[in-house]
Amino acid sequence: MTATSDQYVGAILPTVPGVSTAHVVAFLVMTTALVAAPFFVYPVFLMKALCFALFACAFNLLIGYVGLLSFGHAVFLGSAGYGAAHSAKVWGFAPELAIVFGTAVAAALGVTGGEDGIQSVPRGTLLGVLNLRETLTLYFVVLAIFLVGFLLIYRAIHSPFGQVLKAIRENEPRAISLGYRAEQYKLLAFVLSATFAGLAGATKALVFQLASLTDVHWTMSGEVVLMTLLGGLGTVFGPVVGAFVVVALENYLAQLGAWVTVVQGVIFVVCVLTFRRGIVGELGHILRKSL
Question: 136 lies in a domain?
């Protein structure tokens, strides 16, 4: 690569930043809160929120850092759920193998671009040691899966690969002119996003012992868009906050029935009109910190 092209690379690809203090502090606060949460809040609610938080983080990787909007992302969540549920119930897979299989199904779908579902999915024993039938044990396993997925997404975003994705998002023609194969980068980002969405779906199937058509319905794809935008598009912690807010609204407004969707729509409109950066985006703007 010539010196001239290096100058252009410098203009479009900033130096890969290290882990910021703000991110470390925010991660420690989040982790501490989630470790203590099941002793004060219903663990099943928290596990549902964590699964959707990982799903939203996966979606944010695609739309927030590549600029690709997928209105069918629920297919990866749902297909992984069905894959994990079927392999655990019918084939007798151990929990860890069921999760891996479900995640692989979603990843395969990413490469290629009945009403009752599967019920009574056995939770089993993880690695032959951890009894997932115990709610608290299951919670900390789900928390560990979420944290690992979150950190892997964070690493991808803050790697040279992530910087290229941002460059493609900001100015794709220039990135192509510098020799980067934009389509291949976008495909890989899509596969990564589908994989983590699948990990969330497979984990959710074991948590609720159920895989249903609800997880592949178009409204689920709409919900993850809402979670991401509400928390903060293109932020690290935004999708997590957005997922918890949306799941909390669904849980505490469940008595409204079909009106829950209307309430969510009103909240979305208010957010767009009042703080377009999302909750975390606005907080970061006020604190002058990238969150």
Answer: yes
Round to whole Å and give the CA distance between 228 and 242. Answer: 6
Domain presence at residue 161: yes
Range of the domain at 69: 21-287
C-alpha–C-alpha distance, residues 242 and 49, integer Å? 10
| Contact predicate 255/262, CB 8 Å | no
Distance between first and last Cα of the chain: 34
The one-letter code for the residue type at 24 is: V
Q: Would you say residue 69 lies in a domain? A: yes
Q: Give CA–CA dist 160/291, Å, rounded.
A: 19
Q: What is the dihedral of CA 93, 144, 216, 117, to 10 degrees?
A: 40
pLDDT tens-digit series, residues 223-257: 888 888 888 888 888 899 989 988 888 887 777 76
pLDDT tens per residue across span 59-81: 888 888 888 877 778 888 888 88
In a domain, 198, yes or no: yes
Burial of 237 (0-12, 13-18, 19+ CB in 10 A): buried
Is 56 within 8 Å of 243 (Cβ atoms)?
yes
